[in-house]
Amino acid sequence: MTDTEKKLGWFGRLKQGLKKSSTALTEGITGIFTKKRLDASTLEELEDLLIMSDLGVAVSARICNRLAKNRFDKQISAEEVQQALAEEIGDIMHDVAQPLVINSENTPHIILMVGVNGAGKTTTIGKLAKQFKNDGKSVMLAAGDTFRAAATEQLQVWGERNDVPVVSGKEGCDAAGLAYDAIQKTRETNTDILLIDTAGRLQNKSYLMDELKKIIKVIKKFDETAPHDTILILDATTGQNAVLQTEVFLELAGISGLIMTKLDGTARGGVLVACAEKFKLPIHAIGVGETIDDLQPFNASDFSKMLVGVEVK
Asked: What 8-state DSSP symbol labels residue 97?
């Protein structure tokens, strides 16, 4: 498959994946701006629609202010509103669209994966492992969510599928000790990348904080600059709860970047814009389905246009 075919394939999956979010916004905008002037009433309706689409209050107000500045009391079509919306969202997302870069000088490059249970953390680790292997890197996985046997089993399945080793322990074993063993093994085998899974039980925040601090302390014994990436996996279907989760994990683990999954299962994809506006954290990738190719680097322009129903050319 050529690079062009791959890109077109991703466009198709992204468009399909964002269909629920896009349809909700497009239909809402069309309903508001059918042969209407842009007045205080239509701006209020638009702002309500954008907030309901999980774009967040700050982003919604910013977009409406931009429209009011340029087009107030003038006729405006739904298409013009969509275009303005895509441009504003694109501006917000442009600086945070940053690929996940592996530094070959790190031995290994350690990536700590965090997020609540059910966000798609383990699956994302498996997909990243496959992508790294395809790039010619050697990879090891550490099953650091030691409280859920299912998480360890799922990671082992991904390990077998990708033909990469998985370091795991007994259910309930010390996650920091397991991370220590995994780093030792990567060094013994000259492995390029170590992906460490972690537990995500926010119900007991203080316990989770202690566990993550302990894991990070162990990692820093090997390399003071590590973890080299601490990535939060967010589930798009949780809507505004994703903003709260980002706040919590910033406090718990000092996250350095975001990956959002399950954009295909929700009309709440706008929450990624709210997270970008509020936290300014790099967005490395987005997921729009179950297959390995459904996790791709984040492109601000493509995402913003497809989110609001503007055709990508």
From this structure: B
- Helices 271-279 and 57-71 sit at what angle, rounded to 10 degrees? 90
Per DSSP, 54 falls in state T
Using DSSP, state whether 28 is helix, strand or coil.
Answer: helix
- pTM (2 d.p.): 0.94
CB atoms within 10 A of CB 3: 7
Q: Are 21 and 266 in contact (CB under 8 A)?
A: yes
Predicted confidence at residue 6, as pLDDT, reads: 65
Cα torsion 87, 243, 96, 209 to 10°: value is: 180
Q: What is the pLDDT of residue 12?
A: 87
Q: What are phi and psi of 153, to 5 degrees?
A: -60, -40
Of 49, 22, 54, which Cα lies nearest the Cα of 241? 54
The token pair at 250 is 């910033």
Distance CA 236, CA 268 (A): 6
d(C-alpha 295, C-alpha 310), whole Å: 22
Dihedral angle, C-alpha 176, 200, 248, 85, nearest 10 ° = 130
Over residues 138-171, the pLDDT tens digits come to 999 999 999 888 999 999 999 999 999 999 999 8
The percent helix, strand, coil of the chain (3-state, each to 5) is: 55, 15, 30
Number of H helices, E strands in the chain: 12, 10
Which residues make Cβ contacts (< 8 Å) with residue 182, sequence separation at least 6? 140, 142, 167, 194, 196
| Cβ-Cβ contacts under 8 Å for 164 (sequence gap 6 or more) | 129, 133, 138, 139, 140, 141
Neighbouring CB atoms inside 10 A of 280's CB total 10
The low-confidence residues of the chain, meaning pLDDT below 70, are 1-8, 35, 203
DSSP state of 311: P
Query: Comparing C-alpha atoms, which of 231, 284, 239 is closest to residue 265?
Result: 239
